[in-house]
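Predict the structure of Glutamine--tRNA ligase.
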Amino acid sequence: MSEEKKSLNFLEHIIEEDLANGMPKENLRFRFPPEPNGYLHIGHTKAIGISFGLGETYNAPVNLRFDDTNPAKEEQEYVDAIKKDISWLGYSWANECYSSDYFQQLFDWAVLLIKDGKAYVDSQSSEDMRAQKGTPTKVGTNSPFRTRSVAENLELFQGMKDGKFKEGEHTLRAKIDMESPNMLMRDPLMYRIMYKSHHRTGDDWCIYPMYDWTHGESDYIEQISHSLCSLEFKPHRELYNWFRDNVVPFSSAEYPNPPKQREFSRLNLSYTIMSKRKLLTLVEKGIVAGWDDPRMPTISGLRRRGYTPESIKSFIETVGVSKRENIIDVALLEFKIREDLNKTAKRVMGVLDPVKVIIDNYPEGQEEMLTADYNDYEEGFGTREVPFSREIYIEREDFREEANKKFFRLKLGKEVRLKNAYFITATSCEKDENGEITVIHCTYDPLTKSGMDTEESKRKVKGTLHWVSVKHAVKAEVRAYDRLFLDEAPDAHKDKDFMEFVNPNSLEVITAFVEPSLQTAKIGERFQFQRMGYFNVDDDATTDNLIFNKIVGLRDSWGGK
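Done. Here is the predicted structure for Glutamine--tRNA ligase.
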């Protein structure tokens, strides 16, 4: 086997085998089929990457199909958000499809199943149906309505469509096997009555097809060659194939290519919820500010937080395609955004917890503009001018009156380098009535200016601090985010609600001071605040009110907590 063959994942092996067995390459067609009942999250990026990635690998079309069969939970807002997210990730779909476009065809095929004795109208209550369906260890029993005549079933099903019955009064079920070890094969529902307006079809329909009936038939209509889904749908494969093989028109030349369902493991991420229903609960209860809250694992939340499409794609590629469920450490995702931004983000200075420094021997009223590189390690990032004056802000944690030899930042009697500026030495400090340091007094050496190439500037100083000039500093709101959940698997506890693990300190709003070059930063632009982490300009920011989101720290700080 060639090296190329060895690198294939198991889905690619399946496709290669099908091609080797005679499937024309031009028959390859894939799809990504989200239900528009919520925003896409990081878990969906694996399915997106697999389907669209295979499309790119084989130069095959990939449909974006919305499985919109439940008007009670689906909205146009979700459709628009899903399209935006997929486009942002850098993928293009061949056709934009909707299961609702096939409602009439699905109805007609259901009628054919009834005529063929393979579907019937059941008039039991949902409670009775659950009871007679049995358990995994006990076979089900036939519905008392299972033997209705074809004529009666056709009349009732048409009456359901025409709105003659109440919700729950009748359902349409496939007639398969109530003793099947696979409970999904025990006469599954195909249609239910719902008097809900659909976001696309309005009030044209009052019966709506169930997912299992709709999904495979939509694949067939679109002539999808490989229907790829996550592992929880593996038990559904038998039903998928039954529907596929029992609808009469599929034997015609109009639909020559039966789709093949295959399953891969879904993406599970530590400290994260992957249920759209539970994510909606966080939104509805006000735990987060919306689906695009930067703490949310939604693609829109990650985008607003400052994640890049490249970092997410690299994450998905590293995770790979497998058949076995596992939990991926969220630290890998954080590593990927650090890796990407380390190569692409400009370095700037911002002080998040400021304390004032007065350089006593710097001339009062004097100001100077210092030239600073946006990146000391890579060319092509350019430079900017940074103002310097007698009074500056530094981080409060960067100063101690006394400290041991391992503290290389500012302390009394010791010298540090100010990034792009001078060496300063702390001489004294002022405190308020609570003992809080309010001002640090220093002296500077005018011969140590960055770039001077003097003997003085070559002195070995272990500490380098970032800073901003007090007079020129731009006030900014910084939203520092922590993980939304304190537990590694917040929804894995049978005896506890996932809401019990919400981190009450997942957001800290800080008033910071940043260098004036950031005043022209655009929404979504990403920066490294030197020594502090990576940040981006939030959607709420204006020219008069700068707001930055903390994307991620420079290194993993979670492990030590």
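The first helix runs from residue 3 to 6.
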